[in-house]
Amino acid sequence: MPRSEPIKAARGVRDILPAAIPLWRQAEQGAAGVAQRFGYQEIATPIIEQLELIQRVGEDTDAVAKELYRVEKRGTQNLALRPEATAGVVRAYFEGGLNQGPQPARLYLIGPMFRYDRPQKGRYRQFFQFNVEAIGVGSPAVDVEVIELARSWLIEVGLDKLALELNTIGDDQCRPAYLDLLRTYYRPLKDKLHPDCQRRLEVNPLRLLDCKVPQCQPLKTGAPKITDHLCEPCASAWAVVLKLLDAAGIGYHLNPYLVRGLDYYTRTTYEAIATSGLGAQSTLAGGGRYDGLVKDLGGPDVPGIGFAAGVERLALLLAQEGKERATRPVVFIAPLGDAEAARADQLAQQLRAAGLATEVSFRKSNPGNQLKRADALGARFALVLGDQELKSDRAKLKELKTGAQHEVTLSGFADEVRKLTGGPR
Ligand code: HAM
Fold first, then answer.
1. Could you give the residue range(s) of every CATH 3.30.930.10 domain in the chain?
2. H helix runs in 253-321, sequence order
3. 312 lines ligand 1 (CB under 6 A)
4. Which pTM was predicted?
5. Which of 36, 194, 211, 222 has the least C-beta neighbours within 10 A?
6. How many Å lie between the centroid of ligand 1 and the Cα of residue 202?
């Protein structure tokens, strides 16, 4: 590349520019707030993990088999950038002794994940997840708790066009026999399947059910359903999940094809889908129970359940729906000269101490231009401070949206603005 050409960001990754940060924070802070209210504690695990840990998530998982970012070997360890957080959180649960504390360990994590996928709207190579895990208790009541948590978060940040898709995929006891039934059903149809599904038919037939390729769709309808082939413990856990969701008034749509893209799931699987606005990448959150994963990662037989949600997708949707909760300055103060600048600083200090976001103009320009600037910043009020205002202790506070002029005193300014906004102390 010639040196004169500006170097761009790597493909599929994005900057979060200041204008997008408020929405980002809205999603993140909403996540932390809801998680904490449900009793979940924050955990932060490294972005790099040992390759082997990630590979144990499942060999036929796209995020591992096709999309993994391996880190050039340094020293003796093979490392990779995490494509998801569950494996790292489960590792930390044992390594950090959280298994010795009260169970389930209720944990949440917000951070970047990496997958080498074809970038498109809502799908990136570095993306952020809000990830929730409850490890150590197998009761179906925990399934309902994490589903409720995901739903509360999405509603709280401002979304209402949502659907909850729900399924169970059984466990080690009942799934092998079901997979045989699935293979038996699909084998005579093999030629009609697209090549990926033909390959999966023998190694991982469950994934045939969530294939999105049009030619495979009509074949699904006749496929046996796992809910008709559950063992007794899985069937009764499933019945409890449905009963508790009904009791909690949480609507859901049973989707027998929801098997999820990661190989570690057992029993309950679920996704929260945006019913409009995101096109092909409409899954906001996805998760399920993973009772076998801990053992696969070298630990004892400990159950777990969780979900992860894409922060970018949520932010995109909130922006599209105009759900941004603005964090613009409440007051813009424009001093016209040096003496006024000192007074403007004092007023700004008082406003900020009262919890009101305030910006002081450093530009020396006429009142008209100052008001334009206040408008461009999205401030709610603007105060132009001149000699006259300083001497009389009186000023006109302009409300930019309505054009209203509020008579205020400088000595009681912070209190008066607070009354106007009904805002914080
Ligand atoms: P996942 O379905 O692979 O699950 O990802 C969860 C969510 O992350 C997706 O629903 C989507 O919102 C977001 N996401 C995934 N890939 C991308 C991408 N390339 N760009 C933008 N957003 C993306 C997991 O990761 C599991 N670890 C969830 C889990 C936790 N299951 C149990 N515990």
1. 21-174+230-320
2. 293-296, 311-320
3. yes
4. 0.84
5. 222
6. 26
